[in-house]
Design brief:
This protein is mostly helical. The protein has a domain of about 60 residues. It has five helices and no strands. Helix 3 packs antiparallel against helix 4. It starts with 8 loop residues before the first helix and ends with a helix. The model has no long low-confidence stretch (mean pLDDT about 80).
């Protein structure tokens, strides 16, 4: 016979918030996928709206978010800019002098 263990109210109540480490990791991983999909959608919208200047627009939005102290917005728009760069075939982080230098 199994020993009787005291009931955990949070585990018994399906409406109780999940607070364990496994749930935090799961929510974080789930959120990353959702953010990537949202960033990809925003990248497509910026490309449709701004054409060849979409990358610069995403970087501008990231700088604006950073200047007002909105770190989450900074990270989001930086992710959008990276996605635009990937779609356009840009080399992110490479300066013009590096491309044509010796």
């Amino acid at each position: 016979m199994l020993p009787v263990v005291a009931s955990n109210r949070a585990a018994d109540d399906p409406a109780a918030p999940r607070t364990g480490l496994a749930w935090r990791i799961f929510r974080r991983l789930l959120g990353r996928g959702r953010t990537k999909r949202t960033a990809a959608k925003s990248a497509q919208e910026l490309i449709a709206e701004h054409g060849g200047l979409a990358y610069q627009e995403a970087r501008r939005r990231a700088r604006n978010a950073r200047s007002v102290g909105f770190g989450e917005g900074d990270r989001y728009w930086s992710r959008v800019a990276r996605e635009i760069g990937r779609l356009e075939g840009r080399e992110i982080g490479v300066k013009t002098a590096d491309r044509y230098g010796n």
